[in-house]
Specification:
The protein has one helix and eleven strands; from the N terminus they run E-E-E-E-E-E-E-E-E-H-E-E. It is mainly β. A hairpin with a 6-residue loop joins strand 5 (46-51) and strand 6. The longest helix has 4 residues, at 105-108. It is globular. The N and C termini lie far apart (40 Å). The relative contact order is 0.31. The mean pLDDT is 93.
Length: 127
């Protein structure tokens, strides 16, 4: 079992930046593939980004490519999501997720592939 706690959300003007953090505890962090998902009002939870065990491979949703960067610091048991050039359509609750399984890129975009989830952190981008 692993516990995940997100932080860093808040309100920001369009064009601004935020950095989300997800702190993990309970198990060996480096053994988990980590992902970020978001859920906007009235929408289903959607894939944002994922990173492999050592950070050697990263994948992003088309909607955030070039603006968001996922990274991890295994020594600190933390995964980050740097969000730049934020847009109002980025407004959502952002969730950190973890899985102990080896998953393909298509599988990584499916929230059902992840075993553990944080409580979420609200990001609001105003125009």
């Amino acid at each position: 079992q692993v516990q995940l706690v997100e932080s860093g959300g808040g309100s920001v003007q369009a064009g601004g930046s935020l950095r989300l953090s997800c702190a993990a505890s309970g198990r060996t962090f480096s053994m988990y593939v980590m992902g970020w998902f978001r859920q906007a009002p009235g929408k289903e939870r959607e894939f944002v980004a994922r990173i492999t065990l050592s950070g050697g491979s990263r994948n992003y949703a088309d909607s955030v490519k070039g603006r968001f960067t996922i990274s991890r610091d295994n020594a600190k048991n933390t995964v980050y999501l740097q969000m730049n050039s934020l847009k109002p359509e980025d407004t959502a609750v952002y969730y950190c997720a973890a899985t102990e399984y080896a998953i393909t890129t298509p599988q990584a975009e499916n929230p059902r592939a992840y075993n553990y989830w944080g409580q979420g952190t609200q990001v609001t981008v105003s125009s």
